Amino acid sequence: MKPANPRRELILNAAIATIKNIQEWTIRDVAAAMSMPKSMIHHYWQSKIGLTRAVWAHYAKQTRNVYDITVDLAMWVAMREDPDLAREIRRQRADERAFLQIEFEGIVEARLAQALRVGLGVMRELGLEVDEAKTTELFRELVFANHVRNRAPEVKSGVDQELSA
User: Fold this and answer.
1) Is 1-64 in CATH node 1.10.10?
2) 16 with 55: CB under 8 angstroms?
């Protein structure tokens, strides 16, 4: 892994901000946001694909599963043209889902937790006020209440009866 470079970090942050504001962004747009020549960005990344991959890695590390829907959408669009980026994004999301599957004790719950995070990201982008911590905690409580209910002896015996019938 490359050591942190302050200029590189600034460019990546500017690229994320540009992606949020310009749907069909270019390296020129990122350079303009930084008031620097395009050649400075090309010094670090040879192409928009290289910059996009670096932006994804930076974004994924920086946000730690707090979705920003505009960046996510831009990355999903970029995936169509870059199979390596597509593999990396899918791998990262699968790793996240595997972690959530352990945390929530089930793949369905893990997928719902990911969907909740995306939904919270959409609400954040729309400027809707929502207490994300309380919403996430409520989801967690509901999942675990469901697990407890499904493991209750009377439920388990009902399932066993149905299976034996």
Assistant:
1) yes
2) yes
